Amino acid sequence: MRVLLLGDYSNVHATLARGLREHGVEVLVASDGDGWKNYPRDIDLLRPGLGRMESLRWMLQVLRKFHNFRGYDVVQVINPVFLPLRGEHLWHFYRFLRRHNRSVFMGAFGMDHYWVKAGLDCQTFRYSDFNFGSQLRKSDENAAFIRDWLHGPKGLLNQRVASDCDGIIAGLYEYWASYQAHCAAAKGKMAYIPFPIVVPKACPMRKAGPLRFFIGIQRSRSAYKGTDIMLRALQRIEQHYAQEVEVLKVENVPFDEYVRLMDSSDIILDQLYSYTPAMNALQAMAQGLVVVGGAEPEYYELSGRVDGAPCTLHPIVNVLPDEESVYRGLEYLVLYCHEIDRMRQDSWKFVKHYHDHVKVAGLYLEFWKKCYRQKYGKEL
Hints:
Blueprint: E1 2-6, H1 12-22, E2 26-31, E3 43-44, H2 52-66, E4 74-77, H3 87-100, E5 104-108, H4 113-120, E6 131-132, E7 135-136, H5 140-150, H6 153-164, E8 167-170, H7 173-182, E9 190-192, E10 211-217, H8 222-225, H9 227-240, E11 245-251, H10 255-263, E12 267-270, H11 279-286, E13 290-293, H12 297-307, E14 317-318, H13 323-335, H14 340-355, H15 357-376
Parallel strand pairs: 1-2, 1-4, 2-3, 4-5, 5-8, 8-9, 10-11, 10-12, 12-13, 13-14
Antiparallel strand pairs: 6-7
Helix pairs in contact: 1-15, 3-6, 4-5, 4-7, 9-13, 11-14
């Protein structure tokens, strides 16, 4: 089988490719490395700038590269916007992939039309990037997402691709729930498949010394992601328990350096407005860190459904999008630090069981083949 993975967020496609290769699959990853994060890829699609001549040169390079994106059994795009182009231009690239390959699948791995709709309906989620209960969050970033994804060309593109593609894969509970609530086209051709993680063979040992808290910050998205609230709670912990804790704060570093800096920590703060841990948190758990962030019952229930048995490991310190809730979660870890070694082991076990990249790659292969068989009546 030949597979093309087009675009990348948070190292999902690069990690999936590693798992697929373990199954003997021929895989090509073509992406821009998710910008400054610089994730690995086989074909570089990074756009160097938005100037007229830069854009023209980049477009000519992309067209030449797309000429070779033919003859694959499976093409999976990371998102309806799988190239850094306006939504109205991407449909032509999608149609090229459709005409010249056996099947095309779409990832529900990030911002898109149905995620915006679910956040704005104030019913699908108790809280999200877009709402707290019945109250909508107001921000310039959300206004731009609503303009582009709900009413604009990106939203239209998303709906067209969702209707046309052979299958849709959601990587988080939130994205799965959004499509279930608002995308009729997803019925019968959508699956939740956990994000893939390369997991060490054993849980790394904790280093002696104070509890080490790690927080990664994207400067431009701190308020949107809730990092500002988490940081304030963490700074209070640092003041009240100065002898017991150390804090490592990093901002806008490439992925390899991010992982290296995280390695020396015990606890990571991540994804305040999420029901679920995303790639950063899962990578940390694989390295034996305890996560403070989103882990609502819906996430554990859906994980168990994929596995076919109830999920008994609940290793994440679940906090609400509120500074006091975050503070209490962090303080619990300081006061009960004797539990940290067990919690680190539970984190590693959880990711090993549900997110191992080879196991997840097998789930993708099963889903791709099932969708193709259902739609075309023959084997992929």
